[in-house]
């Protein structure tokens, strides 16, 4: 969904480096068309395009693609030069190896490691958590390299698992679209596991397409999650945007060729429920519509399938700790 929103946790985490370097974070938020009060609302959410603006502004202000979260800055243009260094490689494996060699020229840079073991490939990232206590940088690098790799070969690389070398955070439910598939915390390494066959695939991009890709990347890669292969992602696509005409769980189970009991169990294994998926879709759609002044709160409630605006008020407050009116005021 284009209305898919981003948790305010990631806004606060992205600003940490700028704040530590003495920059006015409130001014950075204003310049990114984000409400200043967002940093004080733990359950608030923001539009992807505003998050992209913030990331790009932070890079420009700090002259640092690591957003002040690394041991030393990674100057703007480093990622682009790495892209030019790998674009003519024959296979994805050669491109990843060359990209890692490029970043090893900077001893303080985050280190990436690629390991191939028969049918599996493992891509791990190591950073200094002293500067990145909320793990925003290391998670961003995982997302960027996964999606860069998918772009290079012209198809989405299916993640079979993601491990994190730290305990499960409070916002772990946000990872479904960032890291689809099985996730394990308190692991030995932070990294991705996928089928090794992708490494043998040829690169389908060239200098021309790289130029277009770099206009908004890697910020755009962080802010616009692609649809995953998880059951939850498939159900989101089946439900779509029309909140007033959603199929029930039994109907969705039939479309996915499984029993309702199996569907519930598999969703439970992914850490969610059918009702939670619907709530999240309604929440994101509501936030998108509240940013559009032409829609009254009553109209939004109707579009979301609520029979009464009071029910919408209660649900929205449960989702964000704010009423629809208070959230709309934040956007102004």
What does this structure look like?
The protein is an alpha+beta fold and 332 residues long. It is 48% helix and 9% strand. It has 16 helices and seven strands. The strands form two sheets. A five-stranded mixed β-sheet has the order 3-4-7-5-6. It has a two-stranded antiparallel ribbon with strand order 1-2. The chain starts with 5 loop residues before the first strand and ends with a helix. It comes from Serpens gallinarum. InterPro entries: AraC-type_N, Homeodomain-like_sf, HTH_AraC, Tscrpt_reg_AraC-type_HTH. This is AraC family transcriptional regulator.
Largest sheet, strands/sense/barrel: 5 strands, mixed
Q: What Rg, in angstroms, do the CA atoms define?
A: 21 Å
- Helix % is 40-55%
Structural class: alpha+beta
Give the ordered list of helices and strands: EHHEHHHEEHEHEEHHHHHHHHH
Query: How are the strands ordered across the major sheet?
Result: 3-4-7-5-6
Helix count, per DSSP? 16
Keywords: DNA-binding, Transcription, Transcription regulation
InterPro entries: AraC-type_N, Homeodomain-like_sf, HTH_AraC, Tscrpt_reg_AraC-type_HTH
Protein name: AraC family transcriptional regulator
């Amino acid at each position: 969904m284009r209305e898919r929103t981003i948790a305010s946790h990631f806004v606060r985490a992205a600003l940490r480096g700028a704040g530590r370097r003495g920059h006015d974070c409130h001014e950075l938020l204003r310049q990114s068309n984000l409400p200043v009060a967002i940093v004080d609302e733990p359950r608030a959410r923001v539009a992807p395009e505003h998050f992209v603006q913030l990331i790009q502004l932070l890079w420009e202000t700090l002259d640092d693609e690591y957003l002040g979260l690394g041991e030393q800055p990674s100057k703007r243009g480093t990622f682009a030069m790495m892209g030019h260094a790998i674009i003519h490689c024959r296979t994805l494996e050669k491109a990843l190896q060359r990209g890692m060699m490029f970043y090893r020229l900077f001893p303080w840079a985050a280190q990436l490691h690629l390991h191939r073991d028969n049918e599996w490939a493992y891509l791990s990232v190591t950073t200094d958590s002293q500067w990145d206590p909320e793990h925003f940088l290391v998670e961003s690098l995982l997302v960027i390299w996964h999606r860069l790799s998918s772009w290079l070969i012209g198809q989405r690389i299916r993640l079979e698992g993601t491990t994190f070398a730290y305990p499960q955070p409070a916002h772990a439910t946000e990872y479904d679209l960032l890291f689809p598939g099985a996730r394990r915390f308190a692991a030995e390494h932070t990294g991705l596991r996928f089928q090794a066959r992708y490494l043998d695939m040829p690169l389908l991009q060239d200098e021309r397409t790289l130029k277009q890709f770099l206009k908004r990347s890697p910020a755009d890669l962080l802010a616009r999650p692609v649809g995953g292969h998880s059951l939850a992602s498939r159900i989101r696509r089946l439900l779509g945007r029309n909140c007033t005409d959603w199929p029930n769980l039994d109907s969705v189970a039939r479309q996915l060729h499984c029993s309702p009991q199996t569907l519930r169990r598999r969703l439970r294994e992914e850490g969610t429920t059918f009702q939670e998926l619907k709530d999240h879709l309604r929440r994101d759609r509501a936030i998108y519509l509240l940013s559009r002044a032409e829609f009254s709160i009553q109209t939004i409630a109707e579009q979301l399938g609520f029979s009464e605006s009071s029910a919408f008020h209660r649900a929205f407050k449960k989702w964000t700790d704010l009423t629809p009116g208070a959230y709309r005021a934040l956007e102004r």
